[in-house]
């Protein structure tokens, strides 16, 4: 919280953009492997910003429960769980990408991309759940 304003709405945009962009870079890396380093960097920064956004959610939860009568505790918990699932998926994607660096096999790059696609879906759903809490009446 910054004053009485939660930081979470400000922080969530960085991981959304970075992790979705990292997924695109992983796809490009399947054809042009010199993009792997850019994908790796984007994925790491996206995960770090995702952890910051996740940790800032507690302040947003307090704010929502105090100021938004339409937000239920169950909705907040659901959003929080899917945010964690997203971070875990992108963490696994990063692990596969790092394994691909060690072995230099394209299979790990492909696995990294497939898991990032799953992570992107989870991330989109997490954003949808967050948007429903803020914008749905």
UniProtKB/TrEMBL annotation:
Statement: the UniProt record of this protein carries the keyword Nuclease: no
Cross-referenced InterPro entries: DUF2231_TM
Keyword set, alphabetical order: Membrane, Transmembrane, Transmembrane helix
Chain ranges passing through the membrane: 12-30, 37-55, 82-101, 108-127
Domain DUF2231 as annotated: residue spans: 5-136
Keyword Transmembrane set for record: yes
Protein name per its UniProtKB record: DUF2231 domain-containing protein
């Amino acid at each position: 919280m910054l004053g009485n304003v939660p930081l979470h709405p400000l922080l969530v945009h960085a991981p959304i953009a970075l992790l979705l962009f990292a997924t695109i870079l992983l796809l490009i890396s399947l054809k042009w492997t010199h993009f792997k380093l850019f994908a790796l960097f984007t994925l790491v920064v996206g995960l770090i910003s995702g952890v910051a956004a996740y940790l800032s959610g507690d302040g947003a939860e307090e704010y929502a429960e105090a100021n938004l009568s339409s937000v239920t505790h169950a909705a907040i918990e659901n959003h929080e769980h899917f945010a964690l699932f997203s971070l875990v998926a992108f963490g696994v994607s990063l692990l596969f990408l790092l394994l691909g660096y060690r072995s230099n096999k394209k299979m790990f790059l492909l696995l990294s991309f497939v898991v990032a696609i799953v992570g992107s879906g989870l991330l989109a759903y997490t954003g949808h759940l967050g948007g429903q809490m803020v914008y749905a009446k």
